[in-house]
Write a structure and sequence with these properties.
Blueprint lengths: L8 H6 L4 H6 L1 H15 L11 E3 L14 H12 L4 H15 L4 H18 L2 E7 L2 E6 L1 H6 L2 H8 L5 E7 L2 E7 L6 H17 L8
Parallel strand pairs: 1-2
Antiparallel strand pairs: 2-3, 3-5, 4-5
Helix pairs in contact: 6-9, 8-9
Length: 207
C-alpha cells in the first residue's frame, strides 16, 4: 500500500482534537509526516494532491480506547495507508479484536481518512465544512483539469445541492447539507461526489 501523508493534525483530526499530537508529541508527529512525504515523492503514477480536510468531526483515537502510545502510532500509520473498503474492513476487525468495540470518534476517523484519499485523487485542495455548507476548493491542477460539465457530471452522483463558481483562479464547489441529513448521510453524499470527480481525472487534457 502507498504511504499517504496527513497534512497537519489540525486538518484531518481537527484543531480541537489533540488526541494524536498529545499522544505522540509534536516532534515525533513532524518526523512521521516528513518520513511519509519522503516515501511518497517520486512514486506517484497519477496526478494527486495533498488535500486539507476540515469537516468539523470528532475524528481521532481516544486515550480511553487505546492508551498505549506505541499502539496508537501504529494504528494511525495504518489508517493513513487506507486505500479502499478492504483496508477499512481489515482495520475495523483488528481494532475490535485488539481493543473492543470502538467509539464514534474512531468511526469518524476512518471515514474522514477515506474522504481525504478520495479528495487527493480528485485533485481537490481543500474540503471545509461550516455548519450546513461544505466548500470544495479544487487545486490549480484540478481547476485546469475539470470543465464545468465535468463537475456537474460528478454532482449528479450526490443529493447535496450545489453551486459552482470561481474564487480567484480556482474552481470552488459549495455543497449544501439539507436540514434532515445526519452526519453519516451527508458524509456518504460528499464521498460520492468526490469519488465521481476523481474518476474523471485524466479523461480530459490539462490546459
Amino acid at each position: 500500500m502507498r504511504d499517504l501523508s496527513i497534512r497537519g493534525a489540525g486538518n484531518l483530526l481537527g484543531k480541537q482534537q489533540h488526541g494524536f499530537i498529545d499522544s505522540v508529541g509534536y516532534d515525533l508527529y513532524s518526523q512521521m509526516l516528513a518520513d511519509s512525504v519522503a516515501k511518497k515523492q517520486g512514486k506517484q503514477t497519477t496526478p494527486k494532491t495533498d488535500a486539507t480536510v476540515e469537516l468539523g468531526m470528532e475524528a481521532y483515537l481516544p486515550a480511553t480506547y487505546i492508551d498505549d502510545q506505541q499502539q496508537k502510532i501504529e494504528m494511525y500509520k495504518r489508517i493513513r495507508q487506507i486505500e479502499g473498503p478492504e483496508d477499512v474492513t481489515e482495520i475495523q476487525n483488528d481494532l475490535i479484536d485488539r481493543f473492543g468495540e470502538y467509539p464514534a470518534e474512531v468511526t469518524n476517523l476512518l471515514a474522514v481518512s477515506q474522504v481525504k484519499i478520495q479528495a487527493d485523487a480528485a485533485l481537490i485542495e481543500k474540503l471545509h465544512r461550516n455548519k450546513d455548507q461544505i466548500v470544495v476548493t479544487l487545486s490549480d491542477q484540478g481547476t485546469a483539469q475539470f470543465s464545468g460539465e465535468d463537475v456537474f457530471k460528478a454532482l449528479s452522483k450526490t443529493k447535496l445541492r450545489a453551486t459552482v463558481g470561481m474564487s480567484g483562479e480556482r474552481m470552488v464547489v459549495k455543497l449544501v447539507i439539507q436540514p434532515k441529513m445526519t452526519q453519516p448521510v451527508w458524509l456518504a453524499e460528499l464521498s460520492q461526489f468526490v469519488v465521481a470527480l476523481g474518476e474523471l481525472v485524466g479523461q480530459q487534457p490539462v490546459g
